[in-house]
Structure formats: C-alpha cells, structure tokens
Amino acid sequence: MARAxxxxxxxxxxxxxxxxxxxxxxxxxxxxxTSILETSHRxxxxxxxxxxxxxxxxxxxxxxxxYKVLFLQGGAxxxxxxxxxxLLTSDQTADYIHTGTWSKKxxxxxxxxxxxxxxxxxxxxxxxxxxxxxxxxxxxxxxxxHLTSNNTIExxxxxxxxxxxxxxxxxxxxxxxxxxxxxVRPFGLIYVGAQKNCGPAxxxxxxxxxxxxxQCREDLPTMLKYQTHxxxxxxxxxCPCFAIYIVRNVLRYLKxxxxxxAMETQNRRKAGLIYDTIDAHPGFFRAPVEKExxxxxxxxxxxxxxxxxxKFVDEGKKRxxxxxxxxxxxxxxxxSTYNACPxxxxxxxxxxxxxxxxxxx
Length: 361
Ligand SMILES: Cc1ncc(COP(=O)(O)O)c(C=O)c1O
Prior knowledge:
By secondary structure, this protein is an alpha/beta fold. It has a seven-stranded mixed beta sheet with strand order 2-10-9-8-5-3-4, sandwiched between helices. Strands 1-12 form a two-stranded parallel ribbon. 36% of the residues lie in helices and 16% in strands. 46% of the residues are buried. The model has no long low-confidence stretch (mean pLDDT 97). Helix 1 (16-24) crosses helix 7, helix 2 packs across helix 7 and helix 8 runs parallel beside helix 10. It binds pyridoxal-5'-phosphate. Pyridoxal-5'-phosphate binds next to helix 3. Pyridoxal-5'-phosphate is lined by residues 10, 75-77, 102, 148, 152, 172, 174-175, 193.
C-alpha cells in the first residue's frame, strides 16, 4: 500500500526509515529478545539510547555545555504553566509576545504566577504577522521574554529573534524546532511538543540553560520542577521510552541526511513552491499572512469560498492528500511541510492546487 501524502499539522509525518526501523525492531530490539515498549527504562540498553538522543540533539543544534536537555511529559501545554511556575515569582514581570492561539494560552497560564506584560498584541494586526523589533514594548529587567517561534494555526513564523539585551528568551518551538540551525545562546528555555517536527506525541523536549535552572523555584511539586528532571537526567520517574526512541531515530535520520542546514534548504524549497503557487493565482488563492512573516512549516491560505475550501479538502483526500483542512478555529486550508514531508508530496499538492484553481476559478 502506497503511503499517503501527509500534511497534518501534528501529530505529523515521520521519516519512512524511522518507521521502518521501529517496525523491524518491534519484536526484538538490540538483540534483547524484547521490544523497546517492554524494556525497563533502567536497563543499560535504554540508558544508551536516552543519552544518544541527548547527545545527537546537542550536536545537531550545537547546544553549548551550559544547557540541559530534558525529556518531559504533559505536552507544550504543560510548559505554558511550568515555565512561569519555575521562573517567575508574583513580584516579577515577564514579557510575552502575543502572536497567536498558543501564545494566548501561554499568557493565561503565566498570569497565574506573576506579572505579564504583553510586549506586542497580535490581535491588533489580526495575527497576520510577527512584530518588528521596534514594535516590542519590552520591560527593562524583565524575568524573561516569551515568544512562539512558529504559529502553527496562523501560519506565521519568526525569521529572526528579537534582541532582548541579555534578557533570556523563553520559546515555544513546538512546530518549528529543528527546521534550521539557529543560535541557542539567547534562549534560556526552549520547549517543544515533539509530535510535529521531532517525533511522536508523548514526549516534550526542553532545553534549559544552567543559570535559569539554578534560579528555579524550589517550593513546587516534585514533578513540576525542572530541577528534579535535570538532576536525574529525565529519569526521575518512568520516561516515555518509546517516544524518546523515535525521537532518537529522527535525530539520527537528520544527522545522516545533512543535518539542519540541509533541512533548511529543503524546507525553504518546499514552502517556496507552495507560496509561489498561491502568489501566481491571486484571484483564487489568498494568503492572509504578510509575506515577511510567512511560516516555512505551516502554510495557510484561503480559497474564494468556504464551499470551495471544503471541496478542495475532499478532492485532496481522494488523491490521498491528508490534513489539508485549516485549524477548526480559523478555517481555510493549511499545508504542513515539516522536515519529513518529502518534496514529492509538495510537488503533488502544488500540481493539485494548480488544477483545482483552473477548474474552479
Ligand atoms: C506552537 C504550539 N504550541 C503548543 C501546542 C500544544 O502542544 P501540546 O498538544 O503538545 O500540548 C501546539 C500544538 O499544536 C503548538 O502548535
């Protein structure tokens, strides 16, 4: 059976060799006579895998030694609370750059723990773009500046990060982590629900700088403290072994396929093909996002009517193109082109877009 063209926003497409390896090893992993699903997280085989995943991530992103990589659970949604819970006290202020659905949720959680200054309110631009640096109203001495690097639903993305003058950036990178190489050093904390660009649902990747870790609040429940997980190398309790195994395999795949620089080239090419098609049919396709803020991962656009959008999604399905429907909160069409989405899938959807515009325009 041929694989479908998978454009889901998450959980999302994984590299075929990663899935094949999991299939091959399902009954007998590393000659243990058992599967990774059935193996103790305290075994030496698991320990090697766990540490390899951390080492690979550090290597691919050139993460300096003064950062810890953690594997947590609870999704990025738990991080909306866990980050301010650990980092912010009731007399401190954190700056939040509001650009979409997920930053709004992050702001709501942060307000439970301290002062939140909305440094940019994306509602004023209908969430159609990322702010320019001059538009940010940052608080001198803020505890941190929070941003969502890629807005999965709205289809906007930071293409450069603001200069926060030494204030650590805390970033939700759930939908664009590993899409390209970037300098980790301005970031105090990065959190990522793995299920878009890094692996399956069930594990949350956290990269935290040692100075922030040392300043985390201690009067918190054990499982909600970053320090607990950092001290125990994310093995305080049973970790999501299978999800981490897949993440490790994805990281191996990225390394074997040219690393993040190669991913960036491919991702730009794929997104470019789709945006060029949108721009070439201005009377039919409409991109709500301003050009400089367009996401390379989640490409959103509208058709002339909701009826045509529904028809596009239906006809796409018949061509085995999955996940074309925009998020239920905004409607329209969304095509997600994460690292593992092959160029061939993008060429197919672009061909379909052109045909559809011709037949229905
Ligand atoms: C940017 C971003 N942040 C947070 C979330 C929520 O992640 P989770 O479902 O892992 O809690 C999502 C999910 O789609 C997302 O795209």
